[in-house]
Specification:
With about 325 residues, the chain is an alpha/beta fold. Helices cover about 35% and strands about 20% of the residues. It has a seven-stranded mixed β-sheet, sandwiched between helices. The chain has a five-stranded mixed β-sheet with strand order 9-11-10-13-14, with helices on both faces. α1 runs parallel beside α7, α3 packs parallel to α4 and α8 packs across α12. The longest helix has 15 residues. The termini are far apart.
Length: about 325
């Protein structure tokens, strides 16, 4: 094991997959010389050349459209979108073309492509550079959506995404880019669609994803001082959702809190609460509570007040415990 930063784990995944398969290429704005907006592709231009590291003009829709065509012809493009907010610029390509191609052509074409995009707040980057839009894309059939929380998962999930024959959207959290964690020196993959129990517990299930996994783990430490033992589940993949891991935990604890960084309204927390309500109602001893951001645009200089944190998780857990 080696200790690696989240962003370097992503860079290692890209390098290893490009070395393994010559059909893998990277395309995006400033992915060549500058090494991408956050240096994930730094050094790859010198190693693999301009044929496989393709810099583009500022035209997200054209980038994704080109990748769709290339993937349909057998290549494995990895698209870098500088900020997840800019995915909204290419919604037609993503929602109407990328997610639908395999279905519309009766499986004639595989579409092995990846879109990487950093989302989330924490850098005071403002309302157009700090959003969490995962529920938009998880709502669209035909594509997979992953959200790694640790360097280990970031590398393993990205490698799995690149090898997947269907389109995968990898939503990284830019506030985690500098975080460190252990990553195996040997080859490994993290399966798409499988959640991870980051901490076992018996009193309350806390389902989380991305940055909120760490907030939930911090909450677990605080709650342990009061004798409350929570189980922290890291979804890792938003779509397809690992219902089995969630349901197994709820069956054990009978209480559920869902914590995500996106606005609470209409989010993935609502989907999970509804699923558990529909299929696990007899196991619940308290209402399902959600932790999320308020239903307002991300404020420039007030992100520390806007973003949900470990204290919000603590408050929600104590509330379901008191029910």
């Amino acid at each position: 094991m080696s200790e690696t930063r989240y962003i370097r784990a992503i860079a290692e995944a890209l390098n290893e997959e490009m070395a393994r398969d010559e059909n893998v290429f990277i395309i995006g704005e400033d992915v060549g010389g500058p090494g991408g907006a956050f240096s994930a592709t730094k050094g790859l231009l010198e190693k693999y050349g301009e044929r496989r590291i393709r810099d583009t003009p500022i035209s997200e829709s054209a980038i994704v459209g080109l990748a769709i065509g290339a993937a349909a012809q057998g290549l494995r493009p990895v698209v870098e979108i500088m900020f997840a907010d800019f995915l909204t610029v290419c919604m037609d390509q993503i929602v109407n073309q990328m997610a639908k191609t395999r279905y519309m052509f009766g499986g004639m074409y595989k579409l092995p492509m990846v879109i990487r995009a950093p989302g989330g707040g924490g850098l005071n980057a403002g309302p157009q550079h700090s959003q969490c839009l995962e529920s938009w894309f998880a709502h669209v059939p035909g594509m997979k959506v992953v959200m790694p929380a640790t360097p280990y998962d970031a590398k393993g999930l990205l490698k799995s995404a690149i090898r997947d024959d269907d389109p995968v959207l990898v939503l990284e959290n830019k506030a985690l880019y500098g975080s460190k964690g252990e990553v195996p020196d040997e080859e490994y993959l993290v399966p798409i669609g499988k959640a991870d129990v980051k901490k076992a517990g018996k009193d309350v299930t806390v389902v989380s994803a991305s940055r909120m996994v760490h907030q939930a783990l911090d909450a677990a430490k605080a709650l342990s001082k009061d004798g409350i033992d929570i189980e922290v589940i890291d979804l890792r993949t938003i779509s397809p959702l690992d219902k089995e891991t969630i349901f197994d935990s709820v069956e054990k604890t009978s209480k559920l809190v869902v914590a995500h960084e996106a606005v609470k309204a209409f989010g993935i927390g609502a989907e999970i609460a509804a699923l558990v309500g529909e299929e696990m109602l007899d196991y619940l001893d308290a209402p399902v509570l959600r932790v999320g951001a308020p239903f307002v645009p991300v404020p420039f200089n007030l992100e520390s007040f806007y973003l949900p944190n470990s204290q919000d998780v603590v408050t929600a857990v104590k509330k379901v415990m008191e029910y």
